[in-house]
Amino acid sequence: MMQNVKSHIEPLRHQMVERYILPLREGGSLPLLGEADDGFKYVIKMRGAGHGVKALVAEQIGGETARAAGLRVPELVTLDIDEAFGRTEPDPEIQDLLKASQGLNLGMHFLNGAVTLDPYANPVDEAEASRIVWLDAFLTNVDRTPRNTNMLVWHGQTWLIDHGASLYFHHAMSDVEKAALTPFPFIKDHALLRKASRIEEADAEMRSRLSPALLEEIVDTLPSEWLASETQAGISETEMRDIYKRFLTQRFENSNLFVNRAIDERRKILI
Hints:
By secondary structure, this protein is an alpha+beta fold. It has helices at residues 53-68, 92-100, 126-139, 176-180, 199-209, 212-220, 224-229, 237-253, 255-270, and strands at 13-23, 32-36, 41-45, 76-81, 103-109, 115-116, 151-154, 157-160. The protein has a 5-stranded mixed barrel with strand order 1-2-3-5-4. It has a 3-stranded antiparallel beta sheet with strand order 6-7-8, with no helix packed on it. Strand 2 (32-36) and strand 3 form a beta hairpin. The protein is globular, with a radius of gyration of 18 Å.
């Protein structure tokens, strides 16, 4: 069952990180588990890791798009790390990461007791699998494979995590229109493609739940600090927001391109 659909997008809650607990070395970007001043634990995606704030931008756009469409995503919050945080950390790699991540980072509510979803062992019904495949083809998310599903099972339900590898076009920020119209061939590696027998139906449903206006609202909630720190020569923060909006809107309005490719790729693996 899908969750209630958002008709309006609110900015993420903002908290301060008070306690660093441990590194989560399963991910390539070395997220940390920490506790914020609201008393909750979060998986913290760090601005100083890997692809920097672009991964945080992709995480917020991807997670909030999934949530707006009614899929389950742990709550995302913005988390501040001040310059004194982690000074006593003995691991030099983590110490460097904390220093490079002062300022605004992204936190995902920690689902205590959740386990990684195994696409072969854990049940995901065909309708939900089809909606998740649609979402990842739309977002050009290359990181939901059988080796790394980025899905959790929590209280018997499927939860989506880690959308930081989505929107890979923005690492070059060139030819946005061409990127928006890609059929996304990497969908062939999706962990749930075999189960996604209702992709056309999912297309109709997701298009009824999302809209260009809602996608633009999601982009508008991105922190200015992230966009300002990633501005490239001649591209302002306002122009960067416009780039994301154009990409998402064009892709949404031409969903038949990636839907047809997903259906074709699924047919191939079933032969």
